[in-house]
Amino acid sequence: MVLDRRGYHGARVDDIVKTARASHGTFYLYFSNKEDLFRALVADVTEEMRELAESLPPVGPTRSGYDELRGWLGRFYDIYHHYHPVIRAWTEANAQNGDMARLGAQVLRRFIDQLVRRVGEIDPPPVAAPEVAALAMVSMVERATFYAVVGMVPVEREALVDNLAAILHVGLFGGRRRR
Amino acid sequence: MVLDRRGYHGARVDDIVKTARASHGTFYLYFSNKEDLFRALVADVTEEMRELAESLPPVGPTRSGYDELRGWLGRFYDIYHHYHPVIRAWTEANAQNGDMARLGAQVLRRFIDQLVRRVGEIDPPPVAAPEVAALAMVSMVERATFYAVVGMVPVEREALVDNLAAILHVGLFGGRRRR
Amino acid sequence: MVLDRRGYHGARVDDIVKTARASHGTFYLYFSNKEDLFRALVADVTEEMRELAESLPPVGPTRSGYDELRGWLGRFYDIYHHYHPVIRAWTEANAQNGDMARLGAQVLRRFIDQLVRRVGEIDPPPVAAPEVAALAMVSMVERATFYAVVGMVPVEREALVDNLAAILHVGLFGGRRRR
Amino acid sequence: MVLDRRGYHGARVDDIVKTARASHGTFYLYFSNKEDLFRALVADVTEEMRELAESLPPVGPTRSGYDELRGWLGRFYDIYHHYHPVIRAWTEANAQNGDMARLGAQVLRRFIDQLVRRVGEIDPPPVAAPEVAALAMVSMVERATFYAVVGMVPVEREALVDNLAAILHVGLFGGRRRR
DNA sequence: TATGAATGAGATTTCATTCAT
DNA sequence: AATGAATGAAATCTCATTCAT
Fold first, then answer.
1. Residue A167 CB: number of other CB atoms within 10 A?
2. Is residue C5 domain-resident?
3. How far is it, in rounded angstroms, from Cα B89 to Cα A60?
């Protein structure tokens, strides 16, 4: 995947079509321009992310709740792993202003909303400001997974998922035992 | 700041010199190329970050430890706020491979190392894998601050710092009371 | 008709086959290339024009001569109206050098020759240089009709034909009465 | 002049800059795109045409009126001769729809208006529909001059100007003697 | 005959960099 | 030291034409 090696700006249409063993003409037959390809790729990721956000399990200080959280984080990791070239490029785009950044903000928003909802179900409420706590947690999961997936830190999937689950659990339920 | 609006690739040398009310010639008198300018800007941030990493306070389940952590997070926020155009561009560069991404990995490493050291001081050790926990915490702080600073989420400095401090405190010391 | 909206260069083969509800393959089955289609279209017009040039009536300062001239101008208008997309494209091609311009020059020549012949029949000869007078008259008829037909000026068929006939009549026979 | 040989579509930016002994970069320093150059060239011609339209002399069945008309037609010829590459390209553009054709229609309009005004001064009025007569006369002058200038017909400047003047004079004043 | 996805040569346009002044 | 017009390599994009089915 060309995006992987060079990111959006580094990926020349020439590279893309060579990698796909196609021609320039074919490329512009299916995409109206380079950004359009990127949008299509991002749309796939966005769809996966939307489903993922919706499948965030109800949480509770139980063993099964903990396991479900681990499963969910594992899926998060897998999506990031699978789409990481696109996600790299998207991160690149998010660093600028413009459409793609707005789309990124929407997806972020969706995760935060789902998490806020879950946190609202917890009794007693674990934090004063669920919105900010949700932002913090989403940020943690997203970026730690990103760094692991792109190899900026040497962390294996299981170690990452276990630790994120543990930290989130503690963050949500304090020291409460898992029943 | 041109980097703010457009990121590294979006900021043309022409824009940069216009913004600086200088000429192309002058630009190349002081920087050997566009990347060189960016390196210089990043070097400033890197230096701040290095100092910041070193000033990570010893932590403990005390009120003063908590306050120091808040102070430190506030400084983190302020640096991000001040340098956010550069940091955006850096995020963009980190999303690609290459020198800048390696530099980003180094800075990340430094934060993780410092945090691991602090976590190592805690007795009993709060987590099984301090490295991964440290990655998670750095990721959380970094990205939540980034999203807040660039306006992708509407969170104020104080709310952010308070919540991050609370979450980190719980993460490090579980439900232990602040003495 | 695609030529109408966009002219020769603006009419892509893709547009042409879409308009004709055919495929690219079929197009190249019947025409060896895009220019070949245009040549075929122009050939139709050229043939019409050839016949029209030959049917230029003998002229004279009589009412019936005047009426015949009017009829002829009406046919000129009708051909231009019918073929105006092709004629637009041809005008476009005439504005360049090359084969099509040469073909345009031939057709122009044919009209001039016919008109010179008619003018030669007039006694006394109305002008010193029949060739140039013929050029002027052909130019007048051709371009005024073109402007009217393509809508660059708001003139109706009858008004145009009447006036052109009157002017030509005066030009050929001066103020002489129509007998 | 590159437009001369090939017209607008045939003139590649590459040819233009080679002819001008400049580089692509320089071209795009002064014009935002290829059409922009063409617009600039046409603007020059448009300005000349505007002045020419305004300088259309008052007409009358006098020798001096006739001479002024000849002078004016000579200036028309000279402008066409000088700008003929641009005028060819403009004719090409007029053959399509779009901005340039609208601009062409405006210039045509201006000539017609001026001529209608002059014809309106004549007593008795020479034609029933001055608008259409003016269109015919402008068409005649424009196209005959075009054909002569681009070499589609072999007519010299003096012969053209003399004959056009004679025909216009007859058209306007019938057989009336030049006083 | 008919199709239309695929092609690729060649066009336009961009922008980091240079250099004469 | 400072300038900014000029450069040109390299990018994006177009579209007439082909050919396997």
1. 26
2. no
3. 39
Angle (CA) C166 C172 C174, round 5°: 80
Count Cα neighbours of A102 within 13 Å in the Cβ-side half-sphere: 3
- In chain D, the number of structural domains is 1
| Cα B79 to Cα B48: distance, rounded to the nearest angstrom | 8
- Of residues C177 and D42, the one with the higher pLDDT is D42
Radius of gyration, alpha carbons of chain C: 18
Range of the domain at C45: 33-173
Task: Report cis status (omega within 30 of 0) of the bond before A124.
Answer: yes
Report the alpha-carbon distance of residue C42 to residue C48 in Å, rounded.
10
D21 part of a folded domain: no
* Chain B residue nearest residue A101, CA to CA: B152
Is residue A32 within 8 A of residue A18, CB to CB? The reply is no
Nearest to C179 by CA among C30, C80, C63: C63
State the Cα–Cα distance between residues B90 and B17, nearest whole angstrom: 20
Is B152 contained in some domain?
yes
What does the DSSP 8-state code read for residue D22? -
Is pTM beyond 0.85 here?
A: yes
* Ramachandran class of B139: left when φ > 0, alpha when ψ lies in -120 to 50, beta otherwise: alpha
- Contact yes or no for C127 and D167 at CB 8 A: yes
Domain CATH number, residue D76: 1.10.357.10
C-alpha torsion angle, residues A83, A87, A90, A94 (rounded to 10) = 150
Residue A23 and residue A108 in contact, taking contact as beta carbons nearer than 8 Å: no
The answer as to whether D130 is a domain residue is yes
Residue C127, chain D, CB below 8 Å: the answer is yes
For CA atoms C48, C50, C51, C53, the dihedral sign is positive
Q: Do A105 and B152 lie within an 8 Å CB cutoff?
A: yes
Q: What is the reported pLDDT for C110?
A: 92
Could you tell me which residues come within 8 angstroms of residue D112 by beta carbon, excluding any fewer than 6 positions away? C153, D131, D134, D135, D138
pLDDT top residue among B100 and A128:
B100
What's the token pair of residue A88? 């790299």
pLDDT the model gives residue D128: 73
Burial (Cβ within 10 Å: 0-12, 13-18, ≥19) of residue A64 = exposed
Nearest to A112 by CA among A49, A160, A170: A49
Task: Inspect the interface and report whether the beta carbons of D135 and C153 lie closer than 8 Å.
Answer: yes
Distance B3 CA to F5 C1' (A): 25
Nearest to residue D140, comparing CAs of D163, D157, D159, D118?
D163
Mean pLDDT taken over chain B = 89
From the alpha carbon of B9, which nucleotide's C1' atom is closest? E15
pLDDT 10s digits, C50-73 = 999 999 988 788 888 899 999 999
User: CB distance from C95 to chain D under 8 Å?
Assistant: yes
* C1 interfaces chain D, CB cutoff of 8 Å: no
What are the backbone angles phi and psi of residue C14, rounded to the nearest 5°? Answer: -60, -45
